[in-house]
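If you are new to this repository, start here. Below is one unmodified record pulled from the training split, so you can see the exact layout before writing a loader.
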Amino acid sequence: MDSHFNDCAAPAPMGLTLKQRACLDAIEAHLARTRTMPCVEDLRLALGFGSKAGVLRLLRQLEERGRIARLPLRARAIRLLYTGECAHCGRSGPTSP
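And here is the target side for that same chain:
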């Protein structure tokens, strides 16, 4: 494991709120598990929200922060935009593993 991750404390918000980070983590986990992007209902269940409105707000905020891209009027149309930052602390990581 890279020593950079040993220097990282608990996940920092890196410009994201804890809920935004949880939403991004849920998207990545769903993609890793199913090889498809989650729908809003999948994210609602994963995040424990009572309605889809909260998920839609988080997706809009993630899009505004440049973490995801979405296609309007398309189901599961989320694309992750990687910035080359450490997911835990927000610092730039090494370019090679």
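Two things worth knowing about this chain: The beta strands are 68-70, 78-80. Residues 1-13, 93-97 have pLDDT under 50 and may be disordered.
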